[in-house]
């Protein structure tokens, strides 16, 4: 019973942290602000997460668990259609996408506590995307690229669409644009002139 309450409290803290980061960015987020949001003292929050950095990494790991359905499988074994479903799902949760994007942008500085997380994550994601592409196309995509060469492009499209959509959601149909990109991958040739 106490363990279940502790896990529930941790989940509440992670949700509150996502909200605060979405509102203030990582650098503007304080342990005190998160603690206040969940009705704890800062010392009480430190019982669950020993530092702001530990809390940040837990938030990022939790976000990846939500995206992949848990189980630690990452995106291995996924099909392109499931990636499309993930893009559609992200379009329904702008706060989460905004938080992830803000943290990703901030993490490019050398001293950011999430830099190692994102560096490792992108290495893993590129490998997982290559596996998805290999499952779909074999050793060569229709345009001649190997799955390993196309994986960073697929990853860049997914994340780049998120930034464009966050900036102008009325003009950018994130799921539609992703489906268009998949059509280009499947066709293998250059896009026709518009």
Task: Walk me through the structure.
The protein is an all-alpha fold and 194 residues long. It contains nine helices and no strands.
Q: For the terminal residues, how far apart are their CA atoms?
A: 61 Å
Number of strands: 0
Radius of gyration: 19 Å
Helical content stands at over 70%
Mean of all residue-level pLDDT scores: 86
What structural class do you assign from the helix and strand content?
mainly alpha
Percent of sequence in beta strands: under 5%
The SSE order reads HHHHHHHHH
Largest sheet: none
* Helical run tally: 9
Model regions low in confidence, pLDDT < 50 over at least 5 residues? 70-76
What best-fitting shape do the alpha-carbon axes yield?
elongated
Features:
elongated; single chain; mainly alpha
Write the layout of secondary structure elements.
Elements: H1 2-28, H2 31-38, H3 42-48, H4 52-68, H5 80-90, H6 94-106, H7 115-137, H8 147-167, H9 174-187
Helix pairs in contact: 1-2, 1-4, 1-6, 2-3, 5-9, 6-8, 7-8, 8-9
Summarize the structure.
The protein is mainly alpha-helical and 194 residues long.
């Amino acid at each position: 019973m106490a363990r279940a309450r502790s896990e529930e409290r941790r989940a509440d803290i992670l949700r509150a942290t996502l909200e605060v980061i979405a509102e203030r960015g990582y650098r503007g987020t304080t342990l005190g602000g998160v603690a206040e949001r969940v009705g704890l003292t800062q010392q009480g929050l430190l019982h669950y997460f020993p530092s702001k950095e530990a809390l940040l990494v837990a938030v990022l790991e939790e976000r990846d668990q939500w995206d992949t359905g848990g189980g630690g499988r990452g995106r291995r074994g996924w099909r392109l259609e499931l990636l499309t479903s993930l893009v559609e799902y992200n379009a329904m949760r702008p706060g989460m996408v905004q938080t992830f994007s803000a943290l990703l942008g901030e993490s490019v500085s050398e001293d950011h506590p999430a830099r190692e997380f994102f560096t490792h994550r992108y290495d893993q994601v590129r490998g997982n995307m290559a596996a998805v592409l290999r499952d779909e196309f074999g050793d060569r995509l229709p345009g001649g690229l190997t799955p390993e060469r196309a994986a960073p492009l697929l990853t860049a499209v997914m994340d780049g669409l998120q930034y464009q959509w966050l900036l102008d959601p009325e003009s950018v149909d994130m799921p539609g644009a992703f489906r268009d990109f998949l059509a280009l991958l499947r066709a293998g040739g250059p896009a026709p002139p518009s």
